[in-house]
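JOB MANIFEST
job_type = single_chain_structure
chain_count = 1
residues = 112
[input]
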Amino acid sequence: MSSAASKILSTLRGPVLYNAKVAGQVAKQVYIREGMAPPSVAQIETARDAALKFIWDARQAKTWRNISKTQFLNAGLVAAEAYAFFMVGEIIGRRSLVGYNVKSADSNDHHH
């Protein structure tokens, strides 16, 4: 690592640690104020049973025949929302609205 990068990282260390501690304290206060608690074993088992029932029901053809138009539209909206969040993540990851910033193969020919 270059000395410039080391210098930048060392100057950022303090603020990053401070902000992490502040975020931890805020999360702790929210946790306490909202009366949050980890799920109990019974709650985990109930969630697991509900998930398995959902998967089992989804495999049955009769389940899909009984879906109302409203349920179908709601499922479509949830899928569209999930896709939109995925696309926002892609844009953030690429740091560009369209495509990836990839250098062409021709620009690397002079290195061989």
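[summary]
Residues 3-33 form the longest helix (31 residues).
The chain has a mean pLDDT of 85.
exit_status = 0
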